[in-house]
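Researcher: Please predict.
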Amino acid sequence: MNVLKPMPGHEESGPDGAVPIDRETGLPADPKANKRGSGGRWFALLVFLLLAGGLAIGIMRHSQQVSEVAATATERLHLVPAVRVAAVKSSGDTISVTLPGTTEAFEAASIYSRTSGYIAKRWADIGDHVKAGDLLAEITAPELDHQIAQEQATIAQTEAALRQAEANREIAKVTWSATAICSTKAGSPGSRAIRNA
């Protein structure tokens, strides 16, 4: 649809007197639009110059760093260090060194009581040296003390019942021997009454 139409009085007409028409608007083309390619060239040239300048700056900095490293290496190679010197002399027989640290036992034992209660008296403290069989603490157990008192009362009651049974046995023994004596006497009427009872 790009058609060339003649326009009277226009200076930029082609060899056959036609003026180019813009494709989008249908109007005659702007004569300045032909210079669009030269702006792109300037932009490309500017980008190229910026990249070339950045590359040149990077190469220059790299070469400076390489020369600085070489200079430092040469300086260290020829450097004579300054050293402080002291005369050697013997120290005392004892050297005291204080270092931080913790000490742990070779063996550790967990101690559990056979009963629950309160500690009444403590015979050994943390860090004390003890031997097998040493008494470490005395425990007061109110519940256990109550049970012990109750069992002692039961024992006393049972012992009293035992004494009473022994006394009853002695009485029965005396009574039995008296009955036996009476039964040996054949003619007594009291012996028959005891036998019949």
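Model: The longest helix spans residues 142-184.
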